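Record passed on here:
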Amino acid sequence: MRDYGNHATRTADREVEITDIDTCVVEGNFEWNLIKIETDAGVTGIGEAYRGGGIPRIVEYTKRFLLGENPLDHERIVQRIVQEMSGHGGTTGKVVTAASGIEIACLDAAGKILGLPIYELLGSKYRDEVRIYCDTHAGEAYQVEDGATAYADESAYSPDAYAAAAADVVEMGFSALKFDLDLPEDNDPDRTNGRLTNDRIERKRERVAAVREEIGYGVDLAFDCHWDYSVESAKRLAHELEAFDLMWLEDLIPPENMDAQIEVTKDTRTPIATGENRFRVHELSELLYEYGVDIVTPDPTTVGGLAETMRIADRAQEQYIPVSPHNVCSPIGTMACVHLGAAIPNFDVLEYHALEVDWWDELHTNDEPLIQDGSIEVPEAPGLGIELDEDVVAEHTLEGTDPF
């Protein structure tokens, strides 16, 4: 087995060791998995792994081989996690997700040790601020309860409700927004085959038309379908929406079959986005090299961390494909994505998915809200450039779990 342990040396001031790793689950609109690493240099790093269960136990497991490691070796540490746990699913899935959060925490610590913001550790700075698109929902059309989708009554999905929600978000200063377009009505007359009737497609067209009429063409507009449709229904829907010049139509079909994805993408002039539920660069390379996607949407807190997302962005850049990271995180994961957005030339726009969490900005200690006029300024402070307010973290810690 390859040995990714720490065998290299540095000067004494950079010979730092991880002394502890801890996790905390914050109950926002999703379960946010926060990760803290402590070092013998007195520096603490904070990271975030993608939402959902299992991550704290995996992070706890990694302590048996990560204590004593140097957080400056953030890429090697991800490689070591994958290698050490490769025999039990470590090359994909939740292990890679946990490694993503640990890597971000290491980068935060490394930046503080070296006195540099994370984007500088990633190699470049292409922009001073990162544009945000707001994930938007009509009325009470979407709620999350323990990680599951809870739908509202049918009136919440009217074209007028979509248009009103869009107007509110634009009024907040966002120049890009996204709605969910997959709905309970899609399950009629069959719950599982993924086919859309003509009537269902027409209703979707009416919702898109209402939003576009409300906000005009000066605001970027996208719609998410959450992998729900068959190839033929995906094609028909994409064709029907071509007239509205969408920023993209996202995740039309299940993610496993690459040939099917390529078929859908190449069949329409509506831009197609996907990529959030793939792991490591290996699962996205073919998608990019075969032009199975117009905009690639990896989730840095899922895919293997910021350095791994940089590799994906490099491959996308070779194909002249923009990168718009998926992001449903707390301010911690969001700011990690902001540094990534600063560091890659083909970055486009970053997701924000916490509009309904009115205490989102209370989780950090900055004086001002992170999002200003639809953008986030790239921090110049060392590491992530923000710190957690641990009193607020404790107040919102998931019931039955412990705060830091």
User: Anything to note?
Assistant: The two ends are 34 Å apart (CA to CA).
